[in-house]
Amino acid sequence: MAFKVATSPHVTHNNQTSKVMLTVLLCAIPGFLAQCYFFGWGTLIQVLLAMITAILCEAFVVKLRKRDIKATLSDNSALLTGLLLGVSIPPLAPWWVIIIGTAFAIIMVKQLYGGLGNNIFNPAMAAYVLLLIAFPVQMTSWVVPNAIAQHPADLLASLQTVFSFGHPDVDWYRLGIDGSSMATPLDTLKIDLSMGLTTSESLTKAVFSSGVGVGWVWVNLGYLIGGLIMLKLRTIRWHIPVGVIAGLGIAATAGYLISPDTHASPIFHLFSGATMLAAFFIATDPVTAATSNRGRILFGVIIGVLVYLIRNFGGYPDAFAFAVLLANLCAPLIDYYIKPRAYGHR
Amino acid sequence: MRDNAEGILDGIEIIKRLVKPQRIVIAIEDNKPEAVAAMRQALSRYSVLAGNTRVTVIPTKYPSGGEKQLIQIITGKEVPTGAIPASQGILVQNVGTAFAIADAVQASIPLIERVVTVTGNAVSKPGNYWVPIGTPVSHLLQQCGFDINNSNQVIVGGPMMGYTLPLLDVPVLKGTNCILAPAISEFAEPAEARACIRCGECAQVCPAQLLPQQLYWHSKAEEYDKAQAYNLRDCIECGCCSYVCPSEIPLVEHYRIAKSAIRNQELEKHQAEKAKQHFEAKQKRLEDEKRHREERAKQAAAQRKVSMNAGDKDAIAEAMARIQAKKAAAQAGTAEPNAAVQDTNKSSQVAAAIARAKAKKAASAEPSAAGSSKNDQVAAAIARAKAKKAAAAQQHDLNSDNSVTAESADLDPKKAQIAAAVARAKAKKAAAQASATVTDASATKAPETTDSSDDKKAKIAAAVAKAKAKKAMQAQSLEDPAPVEAASPELDEAATKQAKIAAAVAKAKAKKLAQADIQVSQVTVQTTEANTGEDPEAAKKAKIAAAVAKAKAKKAAKLQDKE
Ligand code: SF4
Ligand code: SF4
Considering the entire predicted model, what is its pTM? Predict the structure, then answer.
């Protein structure tokens, strides 16, 4: 009989790319739920929209490239991109914003560079930056967290807002114009600081104390938990998250010590905005990160420090998208200069 | 190990005696506690080894069995890349080897059998067996209850690094440690490889601390130089990276391909280098041979020449001489006069040159001696005149001779006569002209000079000129004696007569000339004496001129005597 001839090793670990991606998706659930709880149905709608768009776009491009559609889609990477972009944009942003963003992420940033594994930039973050620059108004209008909103937006209202059809409740509609949409804590702090208020004065405002800030903290905590689970499952390694958190934390501490009145505390920085989401779910995208352990720590630190700098001195309230893209640019350089010493090379 | 601990320790003892190590470590993985216990027990009975031998339990972590990895686990040292463990003073031996050594030395049993582990779900009686080397694998599997229908591959070696057998009719070798016969369901079908997501899992597990994802990237792109820059060489092909890769990329396969490609490249380079050397050596050899051949040919030619000089060449030379003589005889009428004419030209040219040189010398002497004596000036004038004359004569000669040559188509012996006559006429004319010129010159340059002295000078000049012409004629005859002689039989009497007459004239002239020269030289000498105080150089020149004049006079006298 004919025997199968194969090269060693003849066994492999039961650990596949699709599983890795799926694990990441599942680990994002705590943070995602927290986001849904505080910001309403809009988040879910956005995420679903993004995922569907991502899969369709991926299938389309893969078909154009005459590759195996099923094999490509089954790696779940498109879903992950959709999720990351979906949770990043304001929950009640118009439907076309997320669709444009996702299509851009999948088609331009990922597949045009050769598909999974070959893209230079993190697709979700590149798309986020595109949307932020193209649609600044829609991209910075975050709804008031449900906890303090007098009229929490129900599913229908959310759908109506996102897809702009029907006639939502007048009150809700009005609120949607001037009441339900509100700056994020980071925004508020930035504006207040520019108006001459000190950090502590700014932090006494309702946006921080009465639940909005709390909402953001919970969301961040949710992503932190998911991240820790991933670490435990060895889905990701500790180097990048630790690098990001350390970079941001150290930079924030330094700033806070130098001038507490004009700089927010490190805790505030770590638990507002997209810090944990970025540290555990976005920056750890292996494709666009450095590959060696030391290189990854450096990669994380670069992101953390850049985030702090842009949050404090840049024109945008949150900075993870920019920081991650800039660090993506550095990754090949880091890989070139930081190589682990191979066995026997002292 | 459990069964043969003593034999192993015997082998270790022999090795110890041979290499005299400081320390002996028996490393056993921690999943074999019985083996550890058995070895420890046996070791306690060995007083020879007791001092510096210990049994160390190491974690069961693939690929700790690799030589370099084992060294790292036990000593913390790393074997430098490209070196062998012995360079660090470390020797790694298998327990099987130790046992075989003991067998060979103590019981004189050569290595004819070994322990083979047969395992896998496709065999019903897995276990460790003593198998004679050379046993067919098919037989061994049969004995172990191999279910051929439940298997599609048989692997020699472990699951990570073993190789598959294409068929079972192969023998067990001395390196065959394990035969793995997995059931069809046991090992998952290798899935389609996906794109590398650069997750770095492979780098985390690589025992050589390489970056397998970069190696993969460059190997796949066939950028072997870059792959080597990432130390592809240090990959031990353990398979860990392929094992963990979530994209199920057969990384090791890529490395094997890259490595063999690099090996081939190096081999090719090596062979090309060798071929080049061969080619160059051949080229050199050919050149050497060529040179040798040429040298030999040259030698042979030289030898031939020597022998020819001895005999053949003489004969040839004689023959050539004869031929020439014949030719000369045949052409005597035309060729000889021509030759003579040419020779005349030559000699007259020579004379002219000498005269010119003299004139120049005299001229240079003149300025410094100016005003010292009229005679000096006169001498200079004479010299100049002579030069002119000689030149003129030469030209005339040339012209006339040329015409003579042109006319001498009918081989007339009279030509020679005519030529001689013309030459004489020319010479006379020249002399007349010369005297006139000289007179003029002296008249202009020295108006106060008396007529008598003028006459005298003119005469002298004329004489000199004539003598010159004579000399030229004579020189011709002197310098070309052979042709003249060869031609003489054919010259008629008139020519001979002519020659005689010329000779007589020449004699007369020479006499005169001699007198004149003496005078001139006296004058010159006087001048010189007068001038010595003033200008030594001028004096020297003057002296030289005088000497030349004297020599000429002598020559003339001699010639005259001769004839
Ligand atoms: S383990 Fe596989 S997918 Fe991950 S970096 Fe290595 S080669 Fe790429
Ligand atoms: S096979 Fe893979 S893990 Fe093993 S040494 Fe080579 S690169 Fe490293």
Answer: 0.61
